[in-house]
Amino acid sequence: MDKTLGKCTCGELEFECEGDPINSVFCYCPSCQRLTNSDKWFGLWYPKNNMKLLKGEPVVFIRKGNSGKNMEHLFCGGCGTTIAAFCEAGDFYSVAASCLKNGSRVLPKMLIYTSQAASWAQFPSDIPKFDILPPGMGG
Which keywords does this Swiss-Prot/TrEMBL entry list (predicted)? Predict the structure, then answer.
């Protein structure tokens, strides 16, 4: 199975993701906006067991997601880069596309929480768009 390497900005944290992501998502929720100081988070979703730290120990910030379950944000204590968020509700990591080698070549498969997007956010065309989450994904 193919492995994709990733790292934070300063290189203190290094990790790998095995196989293809199960999803690639632009999330426009207010928490992601604050996290990125932007209009969205671009996360590639990998099952929990397919993401592994290779170097360093991330700082973890835990918050409650809309499901009531934990979202565990992993970031570098040196440079502050968030490399991933573990989504307890779905048992997967939403890995920062920008931290992955070749992550800039991946396109999102869906746009979520668009009803909560900043007024100036731009949505890519021809990508499924959901006000909150698609049916069956919880919330």
Answer: Lyase, Metal-binding, Zinc
Q: Is residue 64 in a domain?
A: yes
Identify the CA nearest to 42 among candidates 106, 113, 97.
Answer: 97
Q: Cα angle at 97 between 46 and 104, to 5 degrees?
A: 130
Contacts for 57 with CB less than 8 Å, ≥ 6 apart: none
- d(C-alpha 83, C-alpha 99), whole Å: 6
pTM of the model as a whole? 0.93
> Domain count of the chain?
1
* Bridge partners, 61 (sequence order): 73
Contact 129, 113 (CB under 8 A): no
- Number of residues assigned to the chain: 139
Boundaries of domain holding 62: 3-116
Tens of pLDDT, residue by residue over 81-133, are 999 999 999 999 999 999 999 888 999 999 999 999 999 999 999 999 999 98
Across the strands, what pairs with 24?
Answer: 44
- Residue pLDDT, tens place only, 13-43: 999 999 999 999 999 999 999 999 999 999 9
